[in-house]
Amino acid sequence: MKSIHNLGLVGVGLIGTSFVRGLLENNIVSNVLAYDSNPSNLEHALNQGWICDQASLNKLSKVCDFIVIATPTKSIVKVLDEISTDLNAEAMLIDVGSTKNEIITHVSEKLPHLRTQFIPCHPIAGWHINGPSSANPDLFNSKNVILVPFPETDSDRVQYVCQLWEGLGAVVTILNDAREHDKIFSALSHFPHFIASSYMEFLLRNPSFSSNLNLGGTGFRDFSRIAGGSEQVWTDIFLSNRLELLNQILEFEELVSEIKELLNKGDKEGISQWLQRTALLRNSWRGSSK
What we know:
The protein has 12 helices and 8 strands.
């Protein structure tokens, strides 16, 4: 595989740093330059030897042949705006944001020249503890990574990015519709986080519950885990994909009303059938045993 001489990392957090660490272990990258608004993130990565030096966005755009934008979702467009003017014509760009339609629409309308260089990516991986200290080169092993390339992007470039992710153990899927991507991942990622955080807010508003969390078991631990994620990251995701999220909240409210009616009626058969259907779907998921 073709090596990357100068890789630029914008956002020295969990996902971006894990990606870089994986490429370093695979001897794909020679030199890593990084930009982050948080000096402590840069210092940690420098001390660990995961990056070679810090650099401005302007410098990254000029000297790097591959740039990874690993900032919170709402910042990705701002970074693209800033680096697009002086970007090396041969450079490749990827992001690792959780939503795609807002970003792809912006590039198509405002930065159309990037459509041959920018390959939007969405790794379905993470951890509830953010920052470079949690970075793990094996983070993407057996995890899904979604690519949503522009039609104008050369197939060789798309294939190269696929190979980079696959080299880290990821399972790559290509979707060609950004809106469909955001709809799917609202249901599979963003809406579950909304539910988990809403549940924790429910506990918070009831002191008799929130003061007894120590009595919770593995069910509470597993269900509530994702509510411990970064508020900055998830605020951006919710706002970026708010229309899909709102639509699914409305559908869910209708479902809750139906289930409430089963409980009101004491409908044992209806409740049992509902639980059987949901358990069957959950247990059919290939990740259910992990």
